[in-house]
Specification:
This protein is α/β, with parallel strands linked by helices and 274 residues long. The protein contains 9 helices and 9 strands.
Length: 274
C-alpha cells in the first residue's frame, strides 16, 4: 500500500464561551461554524447553561482555575490563529481570560454576550465593567448588537446615527474595530464596521423568520474563522455576514420556541447539487 501524504493541519480557532445545551448558540454554535468554514475549532468552556428553544433555565460558572487550565492546555501545546470570546459570566472569569489573552498574538474577536435571545440575563453584577476595562482593549474587533452596545455605552440607539455614535464610544474603550449590528432596528438592516478613521456600511436583507437562535455567536465565530484563514477585518466581516445570512435563511424550527440558524447550510446546499 502506497502511503498517502498527510494533509496540513487547518488553521486553528479557539472559542472561549459558555455551553448551550440546546445546541444552537455558545460553544456548540462556535464549533459548527468553524467546521463549516474549514478551520479547526478548540474550546475553553466558561459556563454551562440549561437552555432550550424557549429560554435559559439556569447557568453555572466554571471555577476560574478550570478556565485557566483549559487556556494553558490549548495555548501551551496547540496554539491558535484566532480567538473568539462569548459568554463570560462574571468579573473573575473575565479577569482569568484576560490574564491569558494578554500574552496571545492572535486576533481576538469579542462577542460581548449579555442577554440571551429570549431576554435572559447572562452576566453577574460588575461583569460589563470588567469587559469594558480589561477585555475590549485586547480586542481586534468587538461585535455588539444594539442592546449590548447600549449596555456598553449607556447610550440609547434608535437609528443609524446612534449606531455610529455608539461605535465611536466603544472604539474609545480600546478595540481596534467595532461592528455594531443593527438588525433590531426597523426597516432594512445595516451593520456598521468602524475603526479610528473608517466607517464601512454592510446593508443586509430582512429575512422573514423567527428561527435566529445563535446568530451573534455564529457571526463572531465566522469572523474569527475568516481571520484565521488570512482575511483582514473588513473582508472577514463581509464573508462572515454572507455565511450568517445563508444560515438565517435556512434556520429551522426546534422545540416550542425559537429555532437555531442552520450552520451546515452550505454543506447541505453542496450535497443537494451533486
Amino acid at each position: 500500500m502506497v502511503p498517502h501524504p498527510r494533509p496540513p493541519a487547518p488553521p486553528r480557532v479557539l472559542a472561549i464561551a459558555g455551553s448551550d445545551s440546546g445546541g444552537g448558540a455558545g460553544i456548540q454554535a462556535d464549533l459548527k461554524t468553524m467546521l463549516a468554514l474549514g478551520v479547526h475549532g478548540m474550546t475553553v468552556i466558561c459556563a454551562v447553561t440549561a437552555q432550550n428553544s424557549v429560554g435559559v433555565q439556569g447557568y453555572w460558572e466554571l471555577p476560574p482555575e478550570a478556565v485557566r487550565a483549559q487556556l494553558d492546555s490549548v495555548l501551551g501545546d496547540i496554539g491558535t490563529q484566532a480567538v473568539k470570546t462569548g459568554m463570560l459570566a462574571s468579573p473573575v472569569l473575565v479577569a482569568a481570560v484576560c490574564d491569558e489573552l494578554a500574552e496571545v498574538a492572535a486576533p481576538v474577536v469579542v462577542d460581548p454576550v449579555a442577554i440571551s435571545k429570549h431576554g435572559d440575563r447572562l452576566l453577574s453584577d460588575g461583569t460589563l465593567e470588567m469587559v469594558r476595562d480589561r477585555l475590549l482593549p485586547l480586542a481586534t474587533i468587538v461585535t455588539p448588537n444594539l442592546l449590548e452596545a447600549e449596555l456598553l455605552t449607556g447610550q440609547a440607539i434608535s437609528d443609524e446615527a446612534g449606531m455610529l455614535e455608539a461605535a465611536r464610544t466603544i472604539i474609545a474603550m480600546g478595540p481596534q474595530w467595532v461592528l455594531v449590528k443593527g438588525g433590531h432596528l426597523a426597516g432594512s438592516p445595516v451593520d456598521l464596521l468602524v475603526d479610528g478613521s473608517r466607517v464601512i456600511r454592510f446593508p443586509g436583507e430582512r429575512i422573514d423568520t423567527v428561527h435566529t437562535h445563535g446568530t451573534g455567536c455564529t457571526l463572531a465565530s465566522a469572523i474569527a474563522s475568516r481571520l484565521a484563514l488570512g482575511d483582514d477585518v473588513p473582508a472577514a466581516v463581509k464573508a462572515a455576514k454572507e455565511y450568517v445570512t445563508g444560515a438565517i435563511a435556512a434556520g429551522f424550527p426546534l422545540g416550542a420556541g425559537i429555532g437555531p440558524v442552520d450552520h451546515g447550510w452550505q454543506l447541505r446546499t453542496a450535497a443537494a447539487s451533486r
